[in-house]
Amino acid sequence: MVVTQLAGARSESAILVGAARDGDRSAFGRLYQLFARMVHAILLSRVPRAEVDDLVQDVFLVAMRRLHTLRDHDAFGPWLAMIARNRAVDYHRRTRQTTELPEELAGGDAVETESFAVLAAVKQLPDAYRETLLMRLVEGMTGPEIAARTGLTPASVRVNLHRGMKQLREKLGGKAHE
Length: 178
Known about the structure:
single chain, mainly alpha, Rna Polymerase Sigma Factor, Chain: A, Arc Repressor Mutant, subunit A, 2 domains, 9 helices, 0% strand, globular
């Protein structure tokens, strides 16, 4: 009875972390399903688009190798987010400086070009706003889902989304008038 109550108090991700630490690959696969969009958004806010998918895989490989070092199973989301941020820093340290071509040269359609312009504007925002906005706008995560995955409070997520959208509108509005 006590074990059942304790297990009921633990989050799904904490239970999956415990199983994954014990070698259950399907549990780690489920963790990937739950957290891949968060990791993708964090990386998208920090590295070139073309590098994001490979880096998402790198983040999960690092997490799988280091899972035994995670003390609090309920902290998997914030721990994984920190790995993603560190991986982005490592990417910039190891990569020679390159300049991306302007999106107009890509020859994409108007919607694609506009999407790239919005992404560029989001990347100019403070980290907290960038990450939560990309989780919401690109990955389609809800506010409560973002809070659950990142370890932020729902109120913090709401504030970050609100302030981030306000700053994004200002950036995009200012660009439209130039």
